[in-house]
Structures are given as C-alpha cells and as structure tokens.
Protein 1
Amino acid sequence: MAFENDWFVEFRISDTTFLSIADTSRATIRDVRGEGVTLTWRVANLVRAREALGERGVAISPIKTRWQAQVCYFHDPEGHRIELWSENT
C-alpha cells in the first residue's frame, strides 16, 4: 500500500503504476453518475499529455493543483472519468 486515509487508499502495483480507490462522497470531482470508476495515470509531462489529447479532439479539463499534484481530467465514451497527474515541480 502506498497511501491510506479514512476515505482513500492507493496501492502500488509497480514502480510506476498505482491503483487508487476513493469514497466518491468525499472526492472533490464526481465520477460518472456515481456508477463508474475513475482511472488515474501518472504522466511524466502533464502539459504535453494534455496537448496531445487536445490535438486528437479530446475534451479535457484545464490543469489544476490538487493534493500537491498537477491534474487534469477527461472522460471515455461511456462517461468514465480519467485523471492524468504529475508531481508539482
């Protein structure tokens, strides 16, 4: 386990892969009508990842700071939220 509190747990799958589970009632960003999952990827260059998705026509949120990280969000065709994040530098 990489991190845990009373509403969020993060498991380290490998050196670069994590699986996080959160209580949606406590999360700051809502999931897909409370019925879906949020997939989260840590990326080396969040600005470039966001630009690449935008160039492909993906609607993606502005970059924001949350939990001492830079994050942005988009949704898959079924409405599941996808989060990209990188550490603040």
Protein 2
Amino acid sequence: MDRQEAQSRMRLDQPFSRRTLLRGTGAGALALGAGGVLAACGSGLKGSGPSGSTGTITIGFITPLTGSLAGFASGDKFVLSQIRQSPVYKNGIKIGGKTYKIAINVQDSQSDPTRAGQVAQQLILNDKVDLILTTSAPETTNPVAVACEKFGTPCVSTVVPWESWYGGLGGNPVKPTTKFEYCTTFFFGLEQFLGTFEPMWNRIHTNKVVACMYPNDPDGNAFRFGFEPLIKGSGYTVVDGGAYQDGTTDYTSMIADFKSHHCEVYSNAPLPPDFNTFWKQASQQGFKPKIATVAKVLLFPSDTVALGPLVVNIATDSWWGPYMPNHSSLTGQSAAELATAYQQKTGNQWVQSLGSSYSLFEVAKEALAAVSDPHDKKEVASALQTVNYTGMCGPLNFAAGPAPGVAIMAPVGVQWKKGTGKYPFEMKVVDNSLNKKVPIEAPLEPTNA
C-alpha cells in the first residue's frame, strides 16, 4: 500500500466523529437559539422561491473587520473598491434579458460567532438579501452558514478548512455525503495542509516528533481529530499539548511537555494572539523546534509585528499571492497586479486574503449569470453547487468535492524571511508540492537557523 492510499484509508478510519468535531462548533449555533447546528438542516423559514421582483440584486458580505481575526479582513475594503469598479458590479448583470444592479451590504462579524450569526439573520430577515458571502475562519463563516441554511439563503464561504465548515453545518467530514441546500465553500482541508506541511518536514532532518498545539474550538478540534491521524499515518509521532481554551495566557505546562518529549517539529491552529503569547514563552523557556508549520496564524504581515525576529523561517500555508499565475474572471487583472494595486493604494504590504475575498464575488457572478431569476433563492443556491470556473484563486469546481458544494484550492508552502526592501519580513514560496505552477522563491531553512 503506498502512502497516498494509506492516507486515504486513514481518513475513513480515523476517530474523527461528528460528535467530537461538533464540540467546537456550538458557539456559532447559539445565535440561532435552542435549535442549534442540526436545526439548520430541517427547520426555519426556508426559501421557497423568488424573494422579490426588484431590479437590484442585494449581496450581503460578512467579514471580521474588527476583533482578534481582523488581520484576515485587512484587505477587504480594498477588494470591495475593486469589485465595485469591475464592469459587472458597476454596470449590472444581464439575466433573462433584464439588467440588474448589484448592491453590496457589508457587515462586521467583530470576530465573534454570536455576532456573526446575528448579522446574518439581520441580512436575511430584515434586509432581504439575495445571497450572502462570508470569509475568514469558522468563528465567522460557520454561524453565517448555519443561519443561511436555516433561513433558506444562498451562501458562499471561504478561508475556513472545509472540514470545519462542513462539521459546523452538521455534516460528517469522514463520510461527507450530506448535501446542504443553500451553502457552499471554497478553500482546502486537512489533506492539503498535510500535503503542504509534510514535504517541508521531510526536507529538515528531525526525530519526527511533532508538537501539536490545537485549541478547543472548531479549527482546533478539526485538526486534533482529523489532522493528527494523518500525521501519524505519515510516520511521525504526535505529542498533543491539550485542548486548551482560546485566550489562554500561560503555556508553561504545554511547553514543558513538548520539551520533555524532545519535539523537533511543531504544528498549530490557534487564534493569532494566543500563538504570539505561546511563541514568545516558548523562546524564553527554550523550546525551539527545528521546523515550525503554523495554520490560521502568521498568514498576514500584521501578524509578524508582535513577534519581530522570532517570526523568521516560521512556515505556513499560502492560498494566494502575487506569485500565483491567476487572473480575475471579472477584469483580467493578474494576481501580481492586484497585490501591487493594493500596496500602492494603501501603503501596506499585500495580504493573501485579497485573492479569496475577491473570488467570493467572482463565484457569486458565475452563479447569478446561470439563473433565470436572481431573486429565486433555490435557483441561485442550486447554481452555486455547480460553479466551475477559473479566476483570481485559480480553478474552482464546486461539483468536484471532496464533499458536495466544496471547491478545493491548491496552496503552497511559504516561510517568513527577512525583508530586502520596504517591508521588514516577506512571505516567500519554499515548497510547491501541491501547485507546481508556482515558482520557488527561496530555500527552505530550519526555523531556528
């Protein structure tokens, strides 16, 4: 049996139960009342057809503009300015011989699951939006998706591991056969995280003992119950630091555990402020793994400020950047051109969420162009399930799986390097195992080189 087959079997046999995954998804469901997550699948005010006959399509956009996850949304205002100036969103979209204007209603989730669910309900029930787009971690995307499924409104999510999103809606990521009527997502999952991180681990000589820092939240639980078996299946030993609570400030016991097991590889999926605290304490207490691969943190330049030089050679995943050979399906603009425009307009370093937020509006346009009535929520939701196009985030096929309504992106491995120009640290591609079209930009180096 080769490694790929072994991993495939591992994904089916691993102890990644629906109950264990959903332990971390309850917060988003609280915004919907006692019905919880599973209520999304069969109750509420379902969309039964056209919601109106106006000549304007209203799109809700929910993103964490403030709070602990605000780094994810740091480029969203710029993206919105670009989208609003694109021909379709500026001049309207022609459907069935009629041209519809497009209005975008932006809401801040404040990085809070309860708030995210509340603003989703407001957009659906009060503002009568036709479609909701949402981004940036399960703390925002999951409660929004739950509300959309419950109240029958088409929804596209991104920047959330698909297993976290799928489990948050009540599905079983181990056997992903459930098709949600109104919700879709595009990003990648645990298999792609392993496909990005393991090649980097293999290129650094270690004892193959992995320190795993996964909190008791949707992402952390998905990594604990889904990613750890994949790590073991790849021949590495797992040392789990424990399901700590978000906001923990003292990681002394976890660090001591990692040191006592001589962990030379490090994996995580915490909130950014929690990792900053952990990594500083780890440095002070002498825990210095040879290779650190992080998820959910150090994805954006703003995340590097708190750590300074401690960030050099920490590796993470990159789903978008100026190095991607991608172009907008709305304007033809390249990824490099979008990144440059952002830097020139804002004076800030490019962020990879530019691409994913941009593609939300591409996906919406693809679905809307395929329907006869953009106010028919069931028709729009059905069209989302079959979107298959190539744009700012490369090819996205929502019918291809690994679960119904899930499109997979191809990330690359990157490390933070000392900057050579205006910016103190720069994200450089060091591994392209999953996306050979992206050129290598710098050598992979040990984290503590």
